[in-house]
From TrEMBL:
Superkingdom, natural source: Bacteria
Stored CDD domains: WHTH_GntR
Region Disordered: start-end pairs: 192-235
Sorted UniProt keywords: DNA-binding, Transcription, Transcription regulation
Pfam families documented for this protein: FCD, GntR
Ranges annotated as biased composition (Basic and acidic residues): 192-212
Transmembrane regions: none
InterPro entries, alphabetized: GntR_C (IPR011711), TF_FadR/GntR_C (IPR008920), Tscrpt_reg_HTH_GntR (IPR000524), WH-like_DNA-bd_sf (IPR036388), WH_DNA-bd_sf (IPR036390)
Protein name: GntR family transcriptional regulator
Residues covered by the HTH gntR-type domain: 2-69
Length: 235
């Protein structure tokens, strides 16, 4: 069965984000095809997509390589996120469905329960699902794609610490959902902007020893030896 290029793209992207492929390392079509059990055609298509997203660059005499973003590029991502997430929330207040609200309220309820119990690992996943669902509720395919790409790249470049007051953080998310449910676009925008600004302080570069003023490429993160089962690739 032919594995589609978007599944191969997801698998390679996930491996880049998790550090399986170090920044600056070569990505040869032959080795990638062998790793994921596919032909070189979907690999070639996947590399083109990843290059357009900024995860891969093509170098003369070297071919496709994992990109090496600078400290400034990493900082820019957080700034762009603070602009786009409030827009997404405002759109969600105008376009959300009852299904979106049900999921958002359920995530807030779970998040508040886990926060009170101090279950930090669960909170990371729930937070990601919350913001993904909020973006989906915007009803804007272009905006959803941009926010999804931002989340991938931020996860690649930053480690995210648990908020000092997780219960309050989830209360903020609950207030955002209330504004979305009422159709109050401006309040949803303002609350999301405040939440995004506070959460920015929880992000740490994967190499915190790098001075922020440097423009040298961020060094590679530690690589992993774990393989990827493409049968479990998200679609």
């Amino acid at each position: 069965m032919r594995i589609p290029a978007h599944s191969v793209c997801t698998a390679i992207r996930d491996d880049i984000v998790s550090g399986v492929y170090e920044r600056g390392s070569r990505l040869t079509e032959e080795l990638l095809a062998r790793r994921y059990g596919v032909s070189r055609v979907p690999v070639r298509e996947a590399l083109r997509t990843l290059e357009s997203e900024g995860f891969v660059v093509t170098r003369r005499h070297a071919g496709a390589c994992v990109a090496e973003p600078t400290v400034q590029e990493a900082a820019d991502l957080l700034e762009v996120r603070m602009l786009l997430e409030p827009l997404g929330a405002a759109r969600a207040a105008q376009r959300r469905t009852e299904a979106h609200l049900k999921v958002l309220r359920g995530l807030v309820r779970l998040g508040q329960e886990r926060a009170r119990r101090g279950e930090g690992e669960d909170l990371r996943s729930l937070g990601g699902w919350f913001h993904e669902t909020l973006a989906q509720a915007s009803g804007s395919p272009g905006l959803i794609a941009l926010l999804t790409q931002l989340r991938h790249k931020i996860a690649w470049m930053y480690a995210v610490e648990q908020p000092a007051r997780p219960v309050e953080s989830w209360a903020e998310r609950g207030a955002i959902v209330d504004a979305v449910a009422r159709g109050d676009a401006e309040r949803a925008r303002a609350l999301t902007a405040q939440h995004a600004e506070r959460s920015t302080a929880e992000h740490r570069l994967r190499r915190p020893d790098l001075p922020g003023r440097r423009t040298a490429s961020v060094p590679p993160v530690r690589s992993s030896q774990h393989g990827v089962n493409t049968a479990g690739v998200r679609h």
